Amino acid sequence: MPPRKLKIACAGLGRMGKRHALHFLNRTPRAELVAASTPDDAEIQWAKQHLEPYGVRLYKDYDEMLKQEGLEAVVIASVTTVHAEQAIKAIEANLHVLCEKPLSTSVEIVSIRKLGLELEADSRIHSHKAW
Questions:
Q1: How far apart, in whole angstroms, are the C-alpha atoms of residue 101 and residue 107?
Q2: Which domain holds residue 76?
Q3: I need a surface site. Which of 38, 44, 58, 113 has the fewest CB within 10 A?
Q4: For residue 45, what is the domain's CATH number?
Q5: Is 45 contained in some domain?
Q6: What is the pLDDT along the chain (131 residues), one digit of tens a residue?
Q7: 24-38 as b/e: b if 16+ CB within 10 A
Q8: pTM for the full model?
Q9: For the chain, what is the domain count?
Protein backbone atom coordinates (compact mmCIF):
# COMPACT_ATOMS: atom_id res chain seq x y z
CA MET A 1 0.00 0.00 0.00
CA PRO A 2 1.50 3.38 -0.99
CA PRO A 3 1.91 5.97 1.78
CA ARG A 4 -0.90 8.49 2.20
CA LYS A 5 -0.25 11.97 0.81
CA LEU A 6 -0.92 15.19 2.74
CA LYS A 7 -3.43 17.34 0.81
CA ILE A 8 -1.99 20.83 0.79
CA ALA A 9 -2.92 24.25 -0.59
CA CYS A 10 -0.73 27.24 -1.37
CA ALA A 11 -1.85 30.78 -0.49
CA GLY A 12 -0.11 33.35 -2.66
CA LEU A 13 1.62 32.69 -5.96
CA GLY A 14 4.26 35.38 -6.05
CA ARG A 15 7.97 34.52 -6.07
CA MET A 16 7.94 32.29 -2.97
CA GLY A 17 4.41 30.97 -3.54
CA LYS A 18 5.35 29.69 -6.99
CA ARG A 19 8.40 27.97 -5.52
CA HIS A 20 6.36 26.30 -2.78
CA ALA A 21 3.60 25.27 -5.21
CA LEU A 22 6.03 23.70 -7.68
CA HIS A 23 7.97 22.05 -4.88
CA PHE A 24 4.84 20.39 -3.45
CA LEU A 25 3.62 19.51 -6.95
CA ASN A 26 6.85 17.96 -8.24
CA ARG A 27 9.33 17.28 -5.46
CA THR A 28 7.45 16.20 -2.35
CA PRO A 29 6.30 12.60 -2.76
CA ARG A 30 4.21 12.53 0.45
CA ALA A 31 2.27 15.72 -0.40
CA GLU A 32 -0.39 16.45 -2.99
CA LEU A 33 -0.95 20.05 -4.03
CA VAL A 34 -4.72 20.24 -4.38
CA ALA A 35 -5.42 23.99 -4.34
CA ALA A 36 -3.86 27.43 -4.69
CA SER A 37 -5.19 30.93 -4.12
CA THR A 38 -4.22 34.43 -5.15
CA PRO A 39 -6.20 37.62 -5.81
CA ASP A 40 -3.70 38.61 -8.53
CA ASP A 41 -4.82 38.04 -12.14
CA ALA A 42 -1.28 37.57 -13.49
CA GLU A 43 -0.60 34.90 -10.85
CA ILE A 44 -3.88 33.16 -11.71
CA GLN A 45 -2.81 33.07 -15.37
CA TRP A 46 0.55 31.54 -14.37
CA ALA A 47 -1.28 28.95 -12.25
CA LYS A 48 -3.66 28.06 -15.09
CA GLN A 49 -0.62 27.11 -17.14
CA HIS A 50 1.58 25.48 -14.47
CA LEU A 51 -0.79 24.08 -11.81
CA GLU A 52 -4.30 23.60 -13.14
CA PRO A 53 -3.29 20.96 -15.74
CA TYR A 54 -2.17 18.77 -12.81
CA GLY A 55 -5.53 18.93 -11.07
CA VAL A 56 -4.81 21.86 -8.76
CA ARG A 57 -7.98 23.87 -8.09
CA LEU A 58 -7.47 27.64 -8.28
CA TYR A 59 -9.15 30.25 -6.10
CA LYS A 60 -9.13 34.04 -6.05
CA ASP A 61 -10.65 33.92 -2.55
CA TYR A 62 -8.52 32.46 0.27
CA ASP A 63 -11.53 31.80 2.51
CA GLU A 64 -13.19 29.73 -0.24
CA MET A 65 -10.00 27.71 -0.68
CA LEU A 66 -10.01 26.80 3.02
CA LYS A 67 -13.40 25.14 2.52
CA GLN A 68 -12.08 22.69 -0.08
CA GLU A 69 -13.08 19.19 0.95
CA GLY A 70 -10.22 17.03 2.18
CA LEU A 71 -7.74 19.90 2.59
CA GLU A 72 -5.30 19.18 5.45
CA ALA A 73 -2.61 21.87 5.29
CA VAL A 74 -1.85 25.33 3.92
CA VAL A 75 1.47 26.93 3.06
CA ILE A 76 1.15 30.72 3.35
CA ALA A 77 3.33 32.68 0.95
CA SER A 78 1.07 35.66 0.37
CA VAL A 79 1.94 39.29 1.07
CA THR A 80 3.35 39.78 4.57
CA THR A 81 0.48 41.97 5.73
CA VAL A 82 -1.97 39.03 5.59
CA HIS A 83 0.29 36.22 6.90
CA ALA A 84 -1.10 36.30 10.44
CA GLU A 85 -4.73 36.69 9.38
CA GLN A 86 -4.46 33.78 6.94
CA ALA A 87 -2.57 31.59 9.40
CA ILE A 88 -5.18 32.18 12.11
CA LYS A 89 -8.03 31.37 9.71
CA ALA A 90 -6.33 28.12 8.66
CA ILE A 91 -5.67 27.14 12.30
CA GLU A 92 -9.29 27.88 13.17
CA ALA A 93 -10.27 25.60 10.26
CA ASN A 94 -8.19 22.86 11.96
CA LEU A 95 -5.53 22.83 9.21
CA HIS A 96 -1.77 22.45 9.54
CA VAL A 97 0.06 25.68 8.63
CA LEU A 98 3.47 26.46 7.17
CA CYS A 99 3.87 30.24 7.04
CA GLU A 100 6.59 32.24 5.34
CA LYS A 101 8.30 34.72 7.61
CA PRO A 102 7.57 37.05 9.15
CA LEU A 103 4.33 35.84 10.68
CA SER A 104 3.44 39.48 11.25
CA THR A 105 4.95 42.93 11.27
CA SER A 106 2.86 43.78 14.35
CA VAL A 107 2.88 42.02 17.70
CA GLU A 108 -0.71 43.11 18.32
CA ILE A 109 -1.99 41.18 15.31
CA VAL A 110 -0.83 37.81 16.55
CA SER A 111 -2.89 36.80 19.56
CA ILE A 112 -1.76 33.21 20.06
CA ARG A 113 -3.16 33.06 23.61
CA LYS A 114 -6.60 33.87 22.24
CA LEU A 115 -6.46 30.69 20.19
CA GLY A 116 -5.04 28.60 23.02
CA LEU A 117 -2.02 27.65 20.93
CA GLU A 118 1.69 27.48 21.49
CA LEU A 119 3.96 29.08 18.95
CA GLU A 120 7.58 28.10 18.55
CA ALA A 121 9.75 30.34 16.45
CA ASP A 122 12.64 28.56 14.80
CA SER A 123 15.66 30.77 14.34
CA ARG A 124 18.67 28.75 13.35
CA ILE A 125 22.18 29.99 12.91
CA HIS A 126 23.84 27.96 10.22
CA SER A 127 27.53 27.21 10.29
CA HIS A 128 28.07 27.76 6.58
CA LYS A 129 31.18 29.87 6.04
CA ALA A 130 29.25 32.32 3.84
CA TRP A 131 27.31 33.45 6.95
A1: 14
A2: 6-115
A3: 113
A4: 3.40.50.720
A5: yes
A6: 888 999 999 999 999 999 999 999 999 999 999 999 999 999 999 999 999 999 999 999 999 999 999 999 999 999 999 998 999 899 999 999 999 988 877 766 655 545 555 444 443 333 334 33
A7: bbeeeeebbbbbbbb
A8: 0.82
A9: 1
